[in-house]
Design goal:
Blueprint (H helix, E strand, L loop, with lengths): L5 H10 L5 E6 L11 E7 L5 E5 L13 E4 L4 H13 L7 H10 L3 H9 L1 H10 L4
Antiparallel strand pairs: 1-2, 1-4, 2-3
Helix pairs in contact: 3-4
Length: about 130
Amino acid sequence: MNFPDRITVEQVRKEYPAGTRVILEEMSDPQAPPVGTLGTVLGVDDTASLLMKWDNGSGLNVVYGEDRVTKMIMTEKVFKALMRIRESGATNMFDTNMVQRLAYDAGEYELVTYIEEHKKEYAHFIMTGRER
């Protein structure tokens, strides 16, 4: 395996800052989380690999040039706010007006804006657990 140069590593660090949410598309490791698993980037190492915390508890890194993830538009903060509303059972998650109202009342303004600006991604996430 050829290691990426310093410029590539810095580009990956800018594209995937800590806290970025990703969806696993492909990982060539027998212990890999299932495709479609959501995770949070903890950082980027000197080989441009993503240091990960997967939602299923795995900590396997995404190896640069080998594995594939898709960056989610939804931030960690929006994701957590959305999960709090979902877990409360206060509304049908397809009732976007009520979800936005609950988010607004809870001071989760970033979620209100996310739903308004990313209607397709929101609906797809509610149906599949994935933005795209």
